[in-house]
Amino acid sequence: MNSPELLPVGRRVAYWRGRRRLSQQVFADRLGRSKSWVDKVERGVRSLDKVSTLRDIAAVLRIDTAVLLGRDAQPAAMAERVEGVERIREALSTYEIALGRPVARNGAVPADRLARDVEHAWVTFQHARYPQAVAAVPGLLAGVQRAAADDPGWGRPLLVEGYRLTASVLVKLGEVELGWLAADRAMAAATGDPVLVAAAAVQLGQVFRAAGRARAAQSAVLAAGYKIAPADPAEGAPGALSLCGTLLVQGALSAARRGDDRAAIELLDEAAGMAARVGDGQDHHRTAFGPTAVDLARAAAALDLGDAGEAVAWHERTTRRDGWRWLPLEHRAAHLVDAARAYAWADDPARAGRVLLDADRLAPAEVRHRPAAREVLAQVARDPHAPAAIIELAVAVGVT
């Protein structure tokens, strides 16, 4: 098959639709078009001459408009990301152990080394080194699946962590459906252990929100969180408080996504009480939960509720704290992307641009590999008052 960037635009639409495993009918439904319209576009009978239509198609296919148009702004990075995701898809499609098929024993990883591999993969993700995390996931999944089959006692927690990490990476890259599969596997592996279920529910909530299922997200995370909630928060262990508090934050963000400002505020206030007991600088169960994380969530909730001014105020207030610097790079960079969106909505493209540049300096992969961040960058770069440095970044990233 010809390289996709050499194909006519209609054939590129067909190519990427196939890569996303969408039928013409499903693709048409998501675009609000007819199947006949899609067929004519892919065969070159109907031309695509409206920028808005191209952007709609690119959004459904989860690619940049530049890629759809065949520009070579960043084909290497796009190809690397797509191939990495395909390898993860293959790893999630492997059922040799469940089906009783023979697996090479010489590839088994000792327990202590496997635990270190899981730890290292999480650190890689939290340092926003997404290409490296993507590359590590397939081998890691094979290792934790074998460990759980050989010795469920010590292997099951590693299996849950492996699936949690996989879901986190996939959601970050905009691969929501595949991330849903990984989060579902984490929940299934965790069943019977309330703490493991609560840990897995963190990623499940993220996946549900990314998939537009905010009500389901809120229901799932609150059920898991309250199941492990200490009767008296003053006596709760930091790990349990961190998990429960994080799930309350997830519930608040889901409520905000649904427009329920009262529930969002109440849940965030409840989480803040737990965060005060935990303190900043902690990372129990990979949550980075603490007072600073809760107040950054207040900014995100305000943004979802349509109050850009409130979001900006929480951003500016919270990022001055010492606790801000103690958060993982991934957490900080993701927040800066949200802050850029808030400034853009508040008609301050200059500050939006500066915040995006800060995010790029802090964690380049957040801006260059995360589709949601690239979308914000493109939006800010189109503003006539955007800083020159943002235009240069947009050109370098390939989103102009």
TrEMBL record:
Pfam families: HTH_31. Signal peptide: none annotated. Transmembrane segments: none annotated. InterPro entries: Cro/C1-type_HTH, Lambda_DNA-bd_dom_sf. One of its GO terms (molecular function) is DNA binding. This is XRE family transcriptional regulator. Residues 13-68 form the HTH cro/C1-type domain. The lineage of its organism: Bacteria, Bacillati, Actinomycetota, Actinomycetes, Micromonosporales. It comes from Micromonospora haikouensis. SUPFAM superfamilies: lambda repressor-like DNA-binding domains (SSF47413).
